[in-house]
Amino acid sequence: MGISIKEKYSLVCYLSLLHCTDQTFIVMAFNGKYELENQDNFGPFMKALGLSDEMIEKGNDLKSVSEIVQNGNHFKITVTTGTKVLTNEFIVGQETDVQTPTGAKMKAIINLEGTNKLVLKAENVTSITELTGDRLVNTMTIGNIVYTRQSKKIC
Protein backbone atom coordinates (compact mmCIF):
# COMPACT_ATOMS: atom_id res chain seq x y z
CA MET A 1 0.00 0.00 0.00
CA GLY A 2 1.67 3.22 -1.23
CA ILE A 3 0.92 6.83 -0.52
CA SER A 4 -1.58 8.75 -2.60
CA ILE A 5 -0.69 11.43 -5.14
CA LYS A 6 -2.16 14.04 -2.77
CA GLU A 7 0.10 12.82 0.06
CA LYS A 8 3.14 12.84 -2.26
CA TYR A 9 2.31 16.39 -3.36
CA SER A 10 1.91 17.51 0.26
CA LEU A 11 5.27 15.97 1.15
CA VAL A 12 7.00 17.68 -1.81
CA CYS A 13 5.45 21.03 -0.83
CA TYR A 14 6.55 20.58 2.78
CA LEU A 15 10.09 19.61 1.81
CA SER A 16 10.35 22.59 -0.53
CA LEU A 17 9.89 24.80 2.53
CA LEU A 18 12.99 23.39 4.18
CA HIS A 19 16.53 24.53 3.53
CA CYS A 20 19.51 22.73 4.98
CA THR A 21 22.42 24.85 6.11
CA ASP A 22 25.11 23.73 8.54
CA GLN A 23 23.08 20.61 9.33
CA THR A 24 20.22 22.79 10.62
CA PHE A 25 16.82 22.83 8.94
CA ILE A 26 15.31 26.27 8.54
CA VAL A 27 11.64 26.56 7.62
CA MET A 28 11.08 29.01 4.76
CA ALA A 29 7.88 30.22 6.36
CA PHE A 30 8.06 33.86 5.29
CA ASN A 31 8.21 33.35 1.49
CA GLY A 32 5.25 34.96 -0.26
CA LYS A 33 3.33 38.14 -1.01
CA TYR A 34 1.19 39.82 1.63
CA GLU A 35 -1.46 42.47 1.03
CA LEU A 36 -2.06 45.11 3.70
CA GLU A 37 -5.56 44.75 5.15
CA ASN A 38 -5.43 47.38 7.88
CA GLN A 39 -3.07 49.57 9.85
CA ASP A 40 -3.21 51.50 13.09
CA ASN A 41 -1.35 54.74 13.89
CA PHE A 42 0.16 55.21 10.41
CA GLY A 43 0.22 59.03 10.47
CA PRO A 44 1.90 59.63 13.85
CA PHE A 45 4.51 56.92 13.19
CA MET A 46 5.42 58.22 9.73
CA LYS A 47 5.58 61.79 11.09
CA ALA A 48 8.02 60.58 13.78
CA LEU A 49 10.13 59.04 10.98
CA GLY A 50 10.20 62.42 9.26
CA LEU A 51 7.71 61.91 6.41
CA SER A 52 5.94 65.09 5.28
CA ASP A 53 2.22 65.61 5.97
CA GLU A 54 1.60 65.52 2.21
CA MET A 55 3.31 62.13 1.82
CA ILE A 56 1.50 60.77 4.89
CA GLU A 57 -1.86 61.81 3.45
CA LYS A 58 -1.05 60.21 0.08
CA GLY A 59 0.30 57.01 1.63
CA ASN A 60 -2.49 56.47 4.13
CA ASP A 61 -5.04 55.38 1.53
CA LEU A 62 -2.78 53.44 -0.84
CA LYS A 63 -2.78 49.65 -1.12
CA SER A 64 0.46 48.05 -0.07
CA VAL A 65 1.91 44.66 -0.99
CA SER A 66 4.95 43.18 0.74
CA GLU A 67 6.95 40.42 -0.91
CA ILE A 68 9.31 38.38 1.24
CA VAL A 69 11.92 36.09 -0.26
CA GLN A 70 13.71 33.99 2.33
CA ASN A 71 16.67 31.79 1.49
CA GLY A 72 17.93 30.37 4.76
CA ASN A 73 19.08 33.35 6.83
CA HIS A 74 19.06 35.73 3.84
CA PHE A 75 15.92 37.86 3.42
CA LYS A 76 14.81 40.25 0.70
CA ILE A 77 11.73 42.30 1.56
CA THR A 78 10.11 44.48 -1.08
CA VAL A 79 7.20 46.74 -0.12
CA THR A 80 5.23 48.30 -2.97
CA THR A 81 2.87 51.14 -2.05
CA GLY A 82 1.33 52.79 -5.07
CA THR A 83 4.30 53.55 -7.34
CA LYS A 84 6.84 53.63 -4.49
CA VAL A 85 8.98 50.52 -4.07
CA LEU A 86 11.14 50.00 -0.97
CA THR A 87 13.54 47.03 -0.90
CA ASN A 88 15.72 45.87 1.96
CA GLU A 89 18.00 42.83 2.03
CA PHE A 90 19.71 41.41 5.08
CA ILE A 91 21.25 38.36 6.67
CA VAL A 92 19.83 37.43 10.06
CA GLY A 93 22.10 38.48 12.94
CA GLN A 94 24.36 40.74 10.85
CA GLU A 95 24.39 44.52 10.95
CA THR A 96 22.90 46.02 7.79
CA ASP A 97 21.74 49.32 6.35
CA VAL A 98 17.95 49.51 6.23
CA GLN A 99 16.15 52.09 4.11
CA THR A 100 13.18 53.84 5.74
CA PRO A 101 10.08 55.19 3.93
CA THR A 102 11.74 58.64 3.95
CA GLY A 103 14.68 57.27 1.97
CA ALA A 104 17.06 57.61 4.91
CA LYS A 105 19.32 54.68 5.82
CA MET A 106 19.84 53.41 9.33
CA LYS A 107 22.02 50.69 10.80
CA ALA A 108 20.07 47.74 12.16
CA ILE A 109 20.40 44.15 13.25
CA ILE A 110 17.53 41.81 12.47
CA ASN A 111 17.19 38.54 14.35
CA LEU A 112 14.94 35.56 13.77
CA GLU A 113 13.11 34.30 16.85
CA GLY A 114 11.84 30.78 16.32
CA THR A 115 10.72 30.26 12.73
CA ASN A 116 8.07 32.96 12.52
CA LYS A 117 9.29 36.22 14.07
CA LEU A 118 11.75 38.81 12.77
CA VAL A 119 12.94 41.40 15.28
CA LEU A 120 14.68 44.57 14.07
CA LYS A 121 16.50 46.85 16.46
CA ALA A 122 17.84 50.12 15.12
CA GLU A 123 18.78 53.55 16.45
CA ASN A 124 15.37 54.54 17.77
CA VAL A 125 13.10 52.02 16.05
CA THR A 126 12.01 48.53 17.01
CA SER A 127 10.09 46.39 14.53
CA ILE A 128 8.59 42.96 15.15
CA THR A 129 7.23 41.06 12.16
CA GLU A 130 5.35 37.92 13.10
CA LEU A 131 3.88 35.30 10.79
CA THR A 132 0.90 33.29 12.05
CA GLY A 133 -0.70 31.06 9.43
CA ASP A 134 -1.45 33.29 6.44
CA ARG A 135 -1.30 36.51 8.52
CA LEU A 136 1.68 38.82 8.78
CA VAL A 137 1.61 41.35 11.61
CA ASN A 138 4.27 44.05 11.77
CA THR A 139 4.48 46.18 14.93
CA MET A 140 6.88 49.13 14.83
CA THR A 141 7.74 51.42 17.71
CA ILE A 142 9.43 54.81 18.00
CA GLY A 143 9.41 56.09 21.58
CA ASN A 144 5.79 55.68 22.71
CA ILE A 145 4.33 55.62 19.17
CA VAL A 146 3.25 52.14 18.07
CA TYR A 147 2.30 51.46 14.45
CA THR A 148 0.72 48.14 13.48
CA ARG A 149 0.29 46.69 9.98
CA GLN A 150 -1.82 43.58 9.41
CA SER A 151 -1.48 41.78 6.09
CA LYS A 152 -2.82 38.59 4.55
CA LYS A 153 -0.88 36.21 2.31
CA ILE A 154 -2.06 36.43 -1.29
CA CYS A 155 0.46 34.01 -2.86
TrEMBL record:
<keyword id="KW-0813">Transport</keyword>
<protein>
    <recommendedName>
        <fullName>Fatty acid-binding protein, liver</fullName>
    </recommendedName>
</protein>
<comment type="similarity">
    <text>Belongs to the calycin superfamily. Fatty-acid binding protein (FABP) family.</text>
</comment>
<dbReference type="InterPro" id="IPR000463">
    <property type="entry name" value="Fatty_acid-bd"/>
</dbReference>
<comment type="function">
    <text>Binds free fatty acids and their coenzyme A derivatives, bilirubin, and some other small molecules in the cytoplasm. Involved in intracellular lipid transport.</text>
</comment>
<dbReference type="GO" id="GO:0005737">
    <property type="term" value="C:cytoplasm"/>
</dbReference>
<keyword id="KW-0446">Lipid-binding</keyword>
<dbReference type="InterPro" id="IPR012674">
    <property type="entry name" value="Calycin"/>
</dbReference>
<dbReference type="InterPro" id="IPR031259">
    <property type="entry name" value="ILBP"/>
</dbReference>
<dbReference type="GO" id="GO:0005504">
    <property type="term" value="F:fatty acid binding"/>
</dbReference>
<keyword id="KW-0963">Cytoplasm</keyword>
<dbReference type="Pfam" id="PF14651">
    <property type="entry name" value="Lipocalin_7"/>
</dbReference>
<dbReference type="GO" id="GO:0015908">
    <property type="term" value="P:fatty acid transport"/>
</dbReference>
